[in-house]
Amino acid sequence: MIRSVVKGWGAYLPQRIVTNAELARQIDTSDEWITARTGIRERRIAAEGEFTSDLATHAATAALAKAGIAGDDVDLIVLATTTPDETFPATATAVQRRIGMTRGAAFDVQAVCSGFLFALATADNFIRLGQAQRALVIGAETMSRILDWEDRGTCVLFGDGAGAVVLEAAQGAGTADDRGILSSHLFSDGRLHDLLYVDGGPSTTQTAGHLRMEGREVFRHAVTNISAAIEAAHAANGLSSSAIDWFVPHQANARILDATARKVGVPTERVVLTIDRHGNTSAASVPLALVEAADDGRIKRGDLVLLEAMGGGLTWGSALIRW
User: What is the tens place of the pLDDT at every residue in 3-34?
Assistant: First the structure.
């Protein structure tokens, strides 16, 4: 069978670092309060005039270089973002132009913090069906542009960044020993809209709006839903948590990560954590953590890597990859 193998990866973070101490000078909070409740110590914020497409292009260029291919070798770009440059066209088309891709298709997907997993599953399905040989999957966000900087319950949580992977079609035997994406599992429940949303949009307020969240309820649903998605990945591949070499979760809150890892039986030493330095970068969160662990040598060829995320909608999902 055809598998989607990861051939390259890349990431980009804006230069500006905003620490908890800096935020404490602007709103009623403290470094101790933020760190104790979230695990976040600092986050990156895009510069004025630096757009989601800029972050995405930097990450995409790095992933293409790692894969040893040019932009025009790519058949498909799927870009996950909840902070596009414009209402339309898709931010993916801006990346397409900048990397010199002149064929195939480029489009955005919107599943907020779960976006990278939704984009990964979409590209994987194109490759499995033979509709693409190579795909560029990107998660990119400028979450700082939709934050209410007077709401200490949300503005301290988020940051900006981008991560990308290049997928390439390869033959597999159809077993869990194959390299590539073994399975992906996507879910959503529109009844939970009010737990995490943005209070604006072109059709409603004609504004971008600000992020709103019911933190305690999101926490409760996160641990339950993510655990179920992870169990679905295990069941689909006949594997258990003991087989996982690296767990790369969405970096939303350190307490959620700890609770989820305990519930699904993944030891702390096998969990990739970047939340202390990146904050929650929404759709960029999982690829940023994945790229960091691949770049520093923790994730090696043949390793079994488990990805998971949950975002507004609510949306959630998991993916299992043989590196």
Answer: 999 999 999 999 999 999 999 999 999 999 99
User: Domain 2-171, CATH 3.40.47.10 — does that match?
Assistant: yes
The CATH label, of 3.40.720.10, 3.40.47.10, 3.90.190.20, 3.30.70.360, for the domain at 180-322 is 3.40.47.10
Catalytic residue among 20, 225, 253, 280: 280
Helix 215-237 to helix 254-264 angle (10° resolution) is: 30
Instruction: Quote the DSSP letter at residue 122.
Output: H
pLDDT above 70 coverage of the chain, percent: 100
From the candidates 185, 221, 234, 250, give the one annotated as an active-site residue.
Answer: 250
Q: State pLDDT tens for residues 37-53.
A: 999 999 999 999 999 99
Tell me how far CA of residue 74 lies from CA of 12, 67, 164, 229, 297, in angstroms: 20, 11, 13, 30, 26
Give the residue extent of every domain in the chain.
2-171, 180-322
Out of 113, 210, 221, 253, the active site residue is 113
The verdict on whether 155 is a catalytic residue reads: no
Q: Does the annotation count 225 as an active-site position?
A: no
pTM of this structure: 0.98
